[in-house]
Amino acid sequence: MQPPARPPERRHAQPAPPEPAYQEELWQQDPYAEEMPPPPPDPGRRTLKIAAVLLALVAALFILRFYVFTISHVRVVGTRSIPWEEVARAAGLDRRLLYFTLKEQEIEAGVNANRYLAYEGMEKVFPNTLILYVRERVPSAFFTHLGVGFVMADDGMILEKTRDLRLRQGLIEVSGLTVWGQLESGMFPTGGKPGQLEALVALIGEIMAQGYASQVRDVNVSDETSLVMTTTDGYTVHLGNMENLHAKIGTVRAVIEELKRRNLAGGVLEASIPGEATYRAAEGII
After folding, report:
1. Which CATH class is domain 139-285?
2. Cβ proximity of 133 and 117 under 8 Å
3. I want to staple 227 with a disulfide (CB 3.0 to 4.6 A). Which of 62, 97, 200, 239 is the partner?
4. pTM of the predicted structure, to 2 decimals
């Protein structure tokens, strides 16, 4: 007898593993995922970031202070023989001054401390440029007082005090000036007669302004209402008071040129009236 036949074996299919996208969806839908606290911040890293920001700010401020807003470009207007570097040093601009805190009073005082310079103004150009306007005092006249010689600028400032009278060469000699007290370089002389020093400064200044200094030998200011000028070619000029000196000297220059063209050397010019000049030679009036 044959054993009964075995029923065929049933094979159960294994479930396929979920697709990665499905696993990702399950992970996103995990109810415990939102309850997990974020990781605590790293205090060391935060401190490092703050330190880096502060260091960058300090570096930026340093660059702005010493390379951007510090006066590093200087232009000097008004000098003739004095180097601009000397003017800048006198003004204190070799101390790397800050553009925003620059004080004009200090600049002016520094420039005026040099007796050969006179401060006239300044202009700041953002962010680091300064233009200085100055006037350079030029030796113009020479006078003596109590046996000592004094070199004077065209504005009356005493530039040099000396016993070497050779310094008078090339300068207009001044006679008749009355002064008081002790005179030193860097001072303005104090006149003994009212208006005398003012008349001298006006006369010297006008002679220099018209470029006539090389043709003038001396001036006499003993009477401030009757100024006298003597030229190098022997003409004595009476100018009257200090009024209208520009017109008076301009007239004298033109008349003297005409007299020299006519070979009339020396003599006296009466030029106290602006625009008029009367010539008197040894023989009489022409």
Report:
1. alpha beta
2. no
3. 239
4. 0.74
